[in-house]
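Weekly structure sync, notes
Attendees: PL (lead), two postdocs, one rotation student
Agenda item 3: pending single-chain targets
PL asked that the sequence for the first pending target be pasted directly into the notes so everyone works from the same version. It is reproduced below exactly as submitted, 112 residues in total.
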Amino acid sequence: MKKIRIISVPFNDQGMKDMENDLDNSEYVQEFKINEKQFYTLFESGIFNVLNRECDVLIDDFETELIDFESLLKANKVLSNSFENSNCYEIEVLLGLISLTIEMKKGIYFHF
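Predicted structure, written out during the meeting:
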């Protein structure tokens, strides 16, 4: 069975609570499910390395990480400068989820 990884963005405080309580299928959370190929595309792009460095987290296989709003806000400029013209679907989706997270002033979860 292939592993499915999920990137989650809570829309509000209820979504944050749902994430903390491992509630699946919350109506207050936007999820992006990625398969093995998509994961390795993102991994090989270096975008996780930038997030790890700028946000002091460890996004990697078999890890679950939360990047809070403040950390993500600091990392966003580096991400935008490094990946804005990537022409890669997976990177564009991840950057969109990061923008949504910043707009919602919440955190983003990586369930790998």
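Discussion points:
- The mean pLDDT is 87.
- The chain is about 50% helix and 20% strand.
Action: rotation student to compare against the earlier draft before next sync.
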